Amino acid sequence: MSCTCSPQSLDGLVSSWGALRHLKWDSPFVLPRWLKVWWQELGSGADEYVREVTEDGNVIGIAALQINEGIASFIGGADVTDYLDFVVAPGKEQAFFSAVLDDLNRQGVREFHLESLRHDSLAMTSLVDLARGRGYGVSCTLEDVSLELDLPGTWDEYLEMLAPKQRGEVKRKLRRLNEAGDVQYRAAEGGGSLQAVMDLFLDQLRQSREDKAAFMTERMERFFRSMAVTMAEANLLRFGILELDARPVAVVMCFDYNESVYLYNSGYDTRYSSLSVGLLSKVLSIKDSIERGKKRYDFLKGAEEYKYRLGGREIPIYGCRMCLK
């Protein structure tokens, strides 16, 4: 059976996404809406290369790439996009990647630079071997780690999963917080209050760490605000706000996608640091996720110690470079 690699656009992907549900959309970071808002706010200096691969008239995969001076890479920068990959129908990986590599060669692409690849991504499990089989130079290196947690059915079961010392610490910190005043943890999912929630989130994010404050430039803030609107419109955005005596003291920004919750970023009011409100906002986000029947809590990239203490297990993240000539 023959495959055709045809030009598509990000706008076209957004419009046709409903008809492409048979493809394997593994994370919120490969969805057309995410790619489009990243391209609009942070993409620059490269040519958009979006291809739709069909086999006998049926779409079997999407490649959302950018090309800059003969080098192809994903749309979606590794600094704000935790997982990157291709979107392919199960069982069609070989046909899809063969068609994409052939088309890239016709476009004169010399190199493939791929970042933020989970060990179980399609790029790692299918593309790498195919490229090596063609005699291409392939180099993959460990780039980072993410951490994730398989959620049990109840909060008590989760606590039992933790190491005894950490379980005691979580209980002690929650008790201290409750002794300090009236504690509420509430969800916000967008709507008319989105701008106010984003104002709170950005303020507390900047407060919480100097490196986060430096990262949140005006350009990055525009991306975060546009991204929040986009993800809220897709019913994927969920904020968790921790309040003490009705005052917001910490906030987490998460994505709800399928059976998983992705902890994208967070912040807290540094005046309440002694009450561990930053850590406890994550603890209560996990509790909320369990109570809503979610199956996985993904802490995303970065080896921060709290992720291990809260039960996260490491997932290796790779970067791969391929020479196509």
Helix content: 25-40%
The overall pLDDT average reads 96
Shape: elongated
Which radius of gyration do the C-alpha atoms yield?
A: 21 Å
Largest sheet: 13 strands, mixed
What is the end-to-end distance?
A: 26 Å
Structural class: alpha+beta
Could you give the order of the helices and strands? EHHEEEEHEHEHHEHHHEEEHEHE
Number of strands: 13
Q: Total number of helical segments?
A: 11
Uncertain segments are none
- Please indicate the percent range of residues in DSSP E strands (runs of 2 or more): 25-35%
Structure keywords:
325 residues; alpha+beta; 13-stranded mixed β-sheet; 11 helices; elongated
Describe, in short, the structure shown.
With 325 residues, the chain is an alpha+beta fold. Helix content is 38%, strand content 32%.
